[in-house]
Amino acid sequence: MGTAKPTAADRARVPHHLIDIVDPGDRYDVSRYQRDARGAHADIQRRGRAIVVVGGTGLYVRALLDELALDARPSDPDLRARLTALADAEGSEALHARLADLDPASAREVDVRNVRRLIRYLEVATLAGPVARDSAPEATIEATRVALAPPRAWLDARIDERARAMVEGGVLDEARWLRGLGLDPRTPSLSAHGYVHWLAHLAGSIDLETAIARTVRDTRAYARRQMTWFRADPRVTWIDPLVTDPLDLVLKTVRA
Questions:
Q1: Does the predicted model carry a pTM greater than 0.85?
Q2: Angle, CA 156 vertex, CA 150 and CA 158 arms, to 5°
Q3: Of 255 and 154, which is predicted with more confidence?
Q4: What is the pLDDT of residue 40?
Q5: DSSP output for 143-206
């Protein structure tokens, strides 16, 4: 519920891929996603079917579609362990401040609360310097790229509605189930928007309205970062879905 996973009805109408492929306790990063997504893409292509990539995490979209050599990025388990210890001792703000010194562009993209990604960005920046960026990187997979840009007030209201709908739909039961698994609070599956606040509510630390308000706050901030990421890519066509039906544009482009 908390991740807006396609429903059984959705998946019966249209085949979905890379859903339910890992357990909540598994660590799943962008490198694994790149391998899995490109494998799914190749399989669908062999079957001659149309492929629609849906998602809002810019790095993951780029990992699939662009020439992004993730496996070539350096890593150092000892450095990662030291950064993890620093996060435990001084908090994610200390990591974010250090990243801002080494790689300001990456610091602007990553949420200060996303400790796992902060550690990885810091690891790369420490070992190899700032991540190279190109406003129009070479595409590995040609694709029509469409992004939605509804009015801010409308989007903010929809985010608020969705957070409340999550509660009505049973997200607290889902969070209670995750808590029962005994997962480390730093497990990536618990870093998805809202879970930290739903779990804090279940623990009695905050009331439900506060949990909802903080989930809305975090999601709105993430939406702004999504806009910033994709606006840097000149290949993206922006559409106000309240004015233009994006599906019509995509279908016309594909048919052309």
A1: no
A2: 80
A3: 154
A4: 95
A5: --EEEE---HHHHHHHHHHHHHHHHHHTHHHHHHHHHHTT--TTSGGGGSTTHHHHHHHHTTSS
HSE toward the beta carbon, residue 77, CA cutoff 13 A: 0
| Six-digit token string for 13 | 């109408």
The pLDDT tens digits of the residues spanning 64-114 come to 999 877 666 777 888 888 888 888 888 889 999 999 999 888 888 788 888
Spatial contact of 34 and 70, defined as CB atoms under 8 Å apart: yes
Task: Show Cβ contacts of residue 52 under 8 Å, excluding neighbours closer than 6 positions.
Answer: none
Residue pair 83/119 in contact by the 8 Å Cβ criterion: yes
The C-alpha atoms of residue 49 and residue 216 are separated, in whole angstroms, by 37
* Structural domains of the chain, ranges and CATH numbers in brackets: 8-68+142-255 (3.40.50.300), 73-128 (1.10.20.140)
**Predicted confidence (pLDDT) per residue in 191-218, tens digit:** 777 899 999 999 999 999 999 999 999 9
Please calculate the CA angle 6-209-23 and round it to the nearest 5 degrees. Answer: 35
How far is Cα 185 from Cα 213, in angstroms, rounded to an integer?
21
For 9-38, the pLDDT digits (tens) are: 999 999 999 998 988 888 788 888 999 999
Which stretches of the chain are DSSP H helices? Answer: 8-13, 30-46, 58-65, 77-90, 92-102, 104-109, 115-128, 152-169, 171-180, 195-202, 208-231, 246-255
Cα–Cα distance for residue pair 71/69, rounded to 1 Å: 6
Q: How far apart are CA 51 and CA 37, in angstroms?
A: 11
Nearest by Cα to 114 from 187, 25, 209, 32: 187
